[in-house]
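Input/output pair, single chain:
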Amino acid sequence: MLQLAVRQALKSRSSAPLGLRTAWSLTEALGLNKGKEPVDVYAIDPKLVLNPEKLKAADLDKVAARVTVCRELLPKLSRGESELAEMDEPGNAWYFGERAEIFDYKLVGEFSTKSGFAALVHADVVERLRQADPGSPEAKRHPLPSWPDFTDLLSDSVDWPHRRMPFIFAGRMVESHLAALYTLERDGKTVGLLISSETSGGNDDDDD
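Output:
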């Protein structure tokens, strides 16, 4: 199972601590791109992920939405298709995998996007970052990218995943401090995701 594989990967590397030099290399180190098992993914504000102290203190149930996806969908999560809201309404949406009418999607949860961006990231990468010690010598030698690094990267066209960043995907949310995560399910499997700026407005609990 995935959790066992993750524990084995961490154990095998215990003699060479990864510190915070995780980014996409941690995803590779944990073998999260291999195997056939379903994987857990967080939809979350990328600014929070790049701030280890705030990430560690955060209640993920309040600031992120978690979903389990089939392995076949995983590579499609790096290829989001953006769509602006209809008419004169502000906002936008990102579609991943198969698409359908909005009423075919199931709401998973809502999460803060105060930074103006939304991201998808492996749940195991988030947990690893929360466990890391930002003050350790290894972390200081290999820090996570800064927020300006992230915004500079997204100022140009970028292909995901990117080795400098820990995200499966990241994209801009238009005029929205909240986003909602939806799943599209067929035959008992999640075959598509939707991140939308259209929300209930009820889960804006994280700090700037």
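The chain is about 25% helix and 25% strand. Helices lie at 2-12, 23-29, 46-49, 52-57, 60-63, 123-131, 137-141, 147-154.
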